[in-house]
Amino acid sequence: MDRPKKRVVLRAVSSMISLSTKGEEKESKGIRAVNSLCSISEMDDSDLLALLLDRPRLKLERKTSYDEKSLNELSLYDSAYSLDGRSGRDTPVFSIKDSFDPHPMVTEAWEALRRSQVFFRGNPVGTIAAYDHASEEVLNYDQVFVRDFVPSALAFLMNGEPDIVKNFLLKTLHIQGQEKRIDRFKLGDGAMPASFKVLHNPIKKTDTIIADFGESAIGRVAPVDSGFWWIILLRAYTKSTGDHSLAERPECQKGMRLILSLCLSEGFDTFPTLLCADGCSMVDRRMGVYGYPIEIQALFFMALRSAHSMLKQDTEGKEIMDKIGKRLHAMSFHMRSYFWLDFQQLNDIYRYKTEEYSHTAVNKFNVIPDSIPDWLFDFMPLRGGYFVGNVSPARMDFRWFALGNCITVLSSLATPEQSTAIMDLIEARWEELVGEMPLKICYPAMESHEWRIVTGCDPKNTGWSYHNGGSWPVLLWLLTAASIKTGRPQIARRAIDLAEARLLKDGWPEYYDGKSGRFIGKQARKFQTWSIAGYLVAKMMMDDPTLVGMISMEEEKHMKPVLNRSSSWT
What we know:
Layout: H1 3-20, H2 45-53, H3 68-74, H4 104-115, E1 117-120, E2 123-127, E3 144-145, H5 146-158, H6 163-176, E4 181-182, E5 185-186, E6 195-201, E7 206-212, H7 224-241, H8 245-248, H9 250-264, H10 294-310, H11 315-339, E8 340-342, H12 343-350, H13 374-379, E9 385-387, E10 390-392, E11 395-397, E12 400-401, H14 402-411, H15 416-428, H16 430-433, E13 442-443, H17 448-455, H18 476-485, H19 489-502, E14 512-513, E15 519-520, H20 529-543
Antiparallel strand pairs: 1-2, 3-6, 4-5, 6-7, 8-9, 10-11, 12-13, 14-15
Helix pairs in contact: 1-2, 4-20, 5-7, 5-20, 6-7, 7-10, 9-11, 10-11, 10-14, 14-15, 14-18, 18-19, 18-20, 19-20
Catalytic activity: Hydrolysis of terminal non-reducing beta-D-fructofuranoside residues in beta-D-fructofuranosides
EC number: 3.2.1.26
Organism: Thlaspi arvense
């Protein structure tokens, strides 16, 4: 055996033995240590081949809280084929050798992530939004945002460091109990903060937390997604550690009930979806997503499923558990029926009749066919589909939103067939949705007159920038998780390769501008924490696909209704 091949074999043997070693130590930088195997270099070629062929089957044991069925399905990750037997188009096949040597960026990313930690009375309670010393304006980037901390929390959980996540969950739960007022109006008891800041007093040696529930945010909008992310993260913590005691604490049970009581209260709604204001989620500026935005609906569905698995069936929990079950059933039907768009459905909408009356109407929302934008006819492939951005009376927002669609895959709001179609669309429209930097937050961008009317001439959300068609590296972890769950890891591998070509060199920007995501965003902060954490989570999931079980859910049988639109539907 020649020297180059022997080095590859040595590396393979070393990695396999190190994987099977229990109780491996952690380095201070957060990279798992690999034990030295000096004696391997002394073996001859026949011994090495025997060791490779006769090695015991590796047992990548996770916590017992992982769902067995989920892990069995994730084992398809080692295949280059999708769940339906078709290989990915125009994407390189993933090779297991990629996981043997950590990319140099991983070490740099862990160092940057640890620098971003925020401490309260000596304990880590989160990570700041950005660690950009070059920026003159700090604004609120030195605060801990609930939604921003999620990828950081997942990175720490996947690296076996759950304490910071537990501290964060308890601290934000404590903040939830505070009185929340904007001007003279009191917010609901279940509202979670958008962010909080730790103020250190070096003279008195005290720490104080100041929370923002939207009263300081641009636009003064309360974050609807914060409570949903909190519940989803609590489930991830439980799945990762196997520790159910945190979720079973009375204060955590109460916190979940308060969050969901805000959303499950009866009102004038005729739909099971959640009515929201503009700017109440990751898209936190005026972008025409008011109504029933896909991001909020997907997170709401996932939070309902997460809470359903953690709430106790006691006197206080039984009533809300019944409401959750009914809402999940109604939402799965509504979203899969009316938010889903593929080539056939587009053709049906194109041929819709309008002004239909009675329960037999096919065009239930009275969508006007002339409102279909011209770009969509060329964008929609024959094979593929997605959940549209918004559906409400006489209005259908046909834009693609990345976060909402990825969450529908992970939460199983999308059926297996719809999940496959979403990944098909991403591959078929790679240049539009991924380009040179993953991933477009929405597509396409609004420009000219539409931009002026919808955004109010927002100078930050100009065409193909920021929320208006900008490319956000943090979305890489969601794309990776969805790719693995659907058996299409080659999609994630291709996206990670693009990110690795520039992210570190560019200083971990918050977002990129341009149709292909070529330019660093004009107002993007450097060393954006969730850009760093999103990359780390994506890399760790690629190295160990069972980690997707923290955030992924399988479809439940009771949520498989027959999708009949109406009695007149044929």
